[in-house]
Design goal:
Number of strands: 10
Distance between the termini: 30 Å
Strand content: 15-25%
Helix content: 40-55%
Structural class: alpha+beta
Shape: globular
Largest sheet: 5 strands, mixed
Number of helices: 8
Order of helices and strands: EEEEEHHHEHHHHEEEHE
Strand order of the largest sheet: 1-9-8-7-10
Length: about 230
């Protein structure tokens, strides 16, 4: 029996109906007709904007980028999260409604928890060094593992972590994001694994989270094309 292909779980965003845009030879101009805000982007923002308009998730955007360039040509993935954070702050995009939505209060609590985890991570690095952070990332589970609603819980939790990363006071790297997401998932009785991968020429490294063999909030291409250096 052939196994089903592994899924990539990632939230989607939708473009505000009040946005007007114009693509020109140097980039992109966005205008919000209700707030009057105007945002300018270079050409790197055009494919991301077009993908968002097409209803694609962040994982699909990264996958399209990698397919178009091949991983050997990519020195670093497109900074989609930073661009998305700017669009969201300007109310140009918003999280798409989910068939299994959660209340605003639950989402707010998850975002606050993720922000606190980000702050604790930076404090641990400052006081204990990376070894102190690595030790806290080791597998542990506070509650009895659950099977009901696992994917649903993981999708919304990863979404909250991504939004917290957008709101945080400094850029968040992939390993920090992965450790925070894994800690929050384990706190809820799930068993995610943090994968740290690399390629040599040109050198590139990335960290992501997997749950039951499924990639959470990242591209499957990293799993296929990077050598796994460590699993936490």
């Amino acid at each position: 029996m052939r196994s089903k292909p592994k899924q990539t779980i990632s939230p989607h965003y939708e473009v505000s109906p009040f946005v007007r845009f114009h693509v020109h030879e140097r980039g992109l101009i966005l205008f919000h007709t209700q707030t009057g805000k105007i945002l300018q982007s270079n050409r790197a923002g055009i494919p991301i904007w077009n993908a968002l308009r097409a209803g694609k998730s962040l994982v699909e955007i990264s996958s399209d980028f990698i397919r178009g360039h091949s991983l050997s040509e990519v020195s670093s993935p497109p900074d989609t999260n930073a661009f998305l954070a700017t669009l969201e702050r300007a109310k140009l995009v918003r999280p798409a409604a989910s068939k299994q939505s959660i209340s605003r209060s639950v989402e707010t609590v998850l975002i606050a928890e993720a922000l606190l985890e980000l702050l604790v991570y930076d404090l641990r690095v400052a006081i204990l060094g990376f070894h102190g952070v690595y030790r806290t990332a080791q597998p542990w589970v506070w509650k009895k593992p659950r099977s009901v609603g696992v994917v649903h819980d993981a999708v919304h939790l990863l979404h909250a972590v991504d939004r917290a990363c957008c709101l945080y006071l400094k850029p968040v790297r992939c390993l920090q994001r992965s450790i925070i997401a894994a800690r929050m998932l384990r706190r809820r009785g799930l068993r995610p694994m943090i994968q740290i991968g690399y390629r040599t020429d040109p050198f590139f490294g990335h960290a992501w989270v997997e749950l039951d063999g499924e990639t959470l909030g990242d591209s499957r291409a990293f799993r296929r094309k990077l050598h796994v250096l460590d699993t936490i």
